[in-house]
Amino acid sequence: MPETSTSAPAAPEIIATFHRARFAMQRARLRLKEAEREAAVAAAVAVDMAVSLDKAWSAAVEWTFWVVAIDEIVRRVLTDEQREDLAFEGGAGDALARIGDRLDGLRYLRNLHAHQLADTLQVRARDTAAGQPVPRLAWAPIDALPPSDRTGKAAREGKEAYRLHIAGQLVGPIAQRIDVGYASGAWSAALARHAPAPKPVGRIARRQD
After folding, report:
1. How far apart are CA 187 and CA 189, in angstroms?
2. DSSP codes of every residue in 57-88
3. d(Cα 96, Cα 200) in Å, to the nearest integer?
């Protein structure tokens, strides 16, 4: 009797993609943190910190790509209500409680990076307890960004979300909170529960008697 084989289960594929993207996002954040540390050391000894800040800029831009990619993965499977519930069930508290507000702004930012190569970051000095200024990257104010080449409703809402929830804030703390939130195992469990059922494929395998 012929047997019909099926495709690999959808849930493991989605979960694997989610974890790969989350790992890449975390690595980008850690590179940002290390580059800012290098810039602080350079500033302390009066050495040019341009190379370190370039590294930090690159890492921050990459981080925005990955966090939006993760959101797109999650949106394929979970409803808005399920995603909002996970913000609290995951034990993340503020880490994801307002992620929905931030993600539209981060998507707006990602599109500026991808389509216009926009410079969306500014260097801000933060003083340590010893009074030593430490350079940190912050997202630029909304009026410092170039006009978006997109004019639809999503672009307008994204711009407003950026203005309210991203503009002027330090990159590192936002990245830290979102990374911590997505680290919860509740996200993988939810993706496994709600992933679409596998679909059969046309290949026919014959059983060996």
Report:
1. 5
2. HHHHHHHHHHHHHHHHHHHTTS-HHHHHHHHH
3. 36
